[in-house]
Amino acid sequence: DSGVTQTPKHLITATGQRVTLRCSPRSGDLSVYWYQQSLDQGLQFLIQYYNGEERAKGNILERFSAQQFPDLHSELNLSSLELGDSALYFCASSLGIYNEQFFGPGTRLTVL
Amino acid sequence: AQTVTQSQPEMSVQEAETVTLSCTYDTSESDYYLFWYKQPPSRQMILVIRQEAYKQQNATENRFSVNFQKAAKSFSLKISDSQLGDAAMYFCAYRSAPYNQGGKLIFGQGTELSVKP
Predict the structure, then answer these.
(1) Nearest-CA neighbor of B31 among A8, A46, A98?
(2) What percent of the residues of chain A are helix, what percent strand, and what percent coil, each to the nearest 5?
(3) What is the pLDDT of residues A81-93, one digit of tens each?
């Protein structure tokens, strides 16, 4: 157990819908990262937050957005879902920007 | 932009034997970090080993060691005395030094390792 929690574990929804994935970092970690793992694209970095501020952005679609709240938990919002958004979404956290990243168990999103 | 390439989609090893997984990367940066992550069937991402580019000495963690060749931009993982529990997908990953682009990890495509009893 890495100490990073993600909810829900599984999510099944339809095209065009909107979902929210939640991540709670390890106690004391200030940085949160979101990654997407799909068969087509492999493991891709989406976005990083550090202490509530966006720190780095990767290949995140405009339909996707994220934020980190004052209690340091983070949410990834996916809207206008398409079949190709089906993937495993990982959250990771680290103490600072350059410390080891600990990964959560992931949220498996299935878009039908 | 940095890229990471793992040219072996699948590898197989006999239990107790040694196996080496290959990874090459492309970067114009001089300071960075390299990692190997393990993803077992549970899908949990587990850090196996890390290497700082400024260190010439190859990292070692118990049965896991790396061969880091900075000039060749090569970073291979050697697993000695392979165990059934080593069966997993292994990902090579790159991260820029902290003053550059934050802490994002850039992953290779992965190598599926099977261990035969």
Answers:
(1) A98
(2) 5, 55, 45
(3) 999 999 999 999 9
